[in-house]
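ligand=NAI
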Amino acid sequence: MTVRIGMIGPGGMGQAHIERIHTVIAGGRVVAVSDVDPARAAEVAERIGGVSHLTSAELIASPDVDAVMICSFGPAHEVDVLACIAAGKPVFCEKPLTPTAEAALRIMEAEQAVGRRLVTVGFMRRFDASYREMKDLLDSGELGETLMVHCAHRNPTVPEMYTWDMAINDTAIHEVDTMRWLLGEEFVSVRVDTPKKTSLRFPHLQDPLVLILTSTSGVRVDDEIFVNCQFGYDIRCEAVAERGAVSLSDQELTSVRREHTAGNKITRDHNDRFRGAFVTEVQEWISGVARGEHTGSTSWDGYAAACVCDAGVKALTELGEVAVEMIERPAFYA
Ligand code: NAI
């Protein structure tokens, strides 16, 4: 069976997903697109030999679409995810599921009402081979209990429209989800530290930031968010446990020695660094849809990450720790 996919919002991320679905991933084909920019939808549809719809509602309702990928921007996700749930169609929604926990709660309620897990959130780091190896080692217990995790999320630059809260909702959300998954715990509080600002970018932005997250059992996670670091897309993570520590390695394929130096490349962007993770993530989703099974992160994961981010955004303007407010996990998402 070929899963016929409708793509909403074929911008940077959406077109990257289309490209992998049509080249390296088996079992799916993007047959329909829609975008708030109809010219973009028409251009992409023509390129892939698909149909362009004027509205996302029309795309979701189409009998020729088996499953939907939502790659529009965060505030537009909720209405389309709810429409997919109402239509009973599996939906892969790029992160963030929604920009607020309140909106994610409405999605969870709708999904529970239809009684079927339909929503997968695009938290791709769970599919990254290096994070998976790290998790296997920590879960094996060989290093004892995990005590602390040091993370860094560095981007070369961001555009002027990037705002303070995006550092939490769009950027740090990756570490929030990955750390929940790695530790198998929720976070109870967030603090945000504001180090000396870089002079190399827009003055409106506090960059870098450091999030300090505390988990239910007391694991402390610090996450440096530095989105104008200039030198590359650099994702770092070291988990410190009772009997050892484990880190993501540099992602180099080769190391070069010349002119009295040795070094390796640093990736340029998320597509470069997480190429394999994106392929595995989307392949598992398509294969799951074909089997009628849910795979990947759930609406609960989208909600829990949004709760931590809501607290993080609050912590941007409040001194000290902000408690994470979250409902109890419904049995439906156990
Ligand atoms: P983009 O701006 O390149 O593309 C967004 C597309 O959605 C554009 O074509 C835009 O016209 C369209 N759009 C906006 N509102 C819409 C609406 N209401 N209905 C239909 N189409 C609409 O943005 P990008 O970078 O592709 O990001 C898209 C999503 O992917 C965001 O949620 C973002 O957070 C996520 N993302 C995830 C990454 C990851 O590492 N997993 C990396 C980059 C983005």
